[in-house]
Specification:
Order of helices and strands: EEHEHEHEHEEHHEHE
Number of strands: 9
Shape: globular
Oligomer: single chain
CATH superfamily: 2-enoyl-CoA Hydratase, Chain A, domain 1
Low-confidence stretches: none
Radius of gyration: 18 Å
Mean pLDDT: 92
CATH class: Alpha Beta
Largest sheet: 7 strands, mixed
Distance between the termini: 28 Å
């Protein structure tokens, strides 16, 4: 997040003043925001925030408004969420605006309740290839890695659906951009409730 755009505010408590930014104030309440693309920077912030909040809360709220991003950076966030579940800390996810691609994946991987606002746009699709059309042996390696990531995402989405989707159905959904409204997403087991 651009530090120039982070609002600060000051709280007065008797004679003491405390200046905080909004992300810090929210984290003090177990709330984390993922707004924007999933990349190395946002992944580092979200995983760190999850780990910090897990020392104080048994339930964490992760608010998501994301067009997607880099698979491996999203998988890092998912792995921390799953590890926290093993330690008894649940992560509730909240979809606002848009949860597309890796944003949708992270919304669905929530280990507590998975919420969507009524107007949230949810979209899944295939993994985007990073191939640069170099020499054939390198292109083959990149193709195999993209296939591995695609299968990992597909298998995880099957798990996240809690038995409502099978391999064939998820493969079909991932062939093209598959947009869903909140109710369709719930019907497929990829979210739990509509907010509001």
């Amino acid at each position: 997040m651009n530090p120039m755009l982070v609002p600060y505010f000051t709280e007065q408590n008797g004679r003491n003043k405390k200046t905080s930014d909004i992300p810090t104030k929210l984290m003090e309440q177990g709330i984390i925001q993922l707004f924007g693309e999933v990349d190395e920077t946002t992944s580092a912030f979200i995983t760190g925030a999850l780990l910090c909040c897990s020392t104080q809360f048994e339930e964490i709220s992760l608010y998501i408004n994301s067009p997607g991003g880099v698979c491996t950076d999203g998988f890092a966030i998912k792995d921390v969420i799953m590890n926290l579940k093993k330690k008894g800390v649940l992560v509730n996810t909240y979809g606002l605006g848009q949860c597309c691609s890796m944003g949708a994946y992270l919304l669905s991987c929530g280990t507590g309740k998975r919420y969507l606002t009524p107007s949230c746009r949810y979209m899944i699709h295939s993994v985007q290839s990073a191939m640069d059309y170099s020499a054939y042996p390198d292109a083959k390696v990149q193709f195999n890695e993209t296939t591995r990531l695609q299968e990992l995402m597909r298998d995880d989405l099957i798990k996240f659906s809690k038995g409502k989707l099978n391999k064939r159905e998820v493969t079909k959904l991932m062939q093209r951009d598959s947009f869903m409204d909140a109710q369709q997403c719930i019907n497929l087991g990829l979210a739990d409730e509509i907010l509001g």
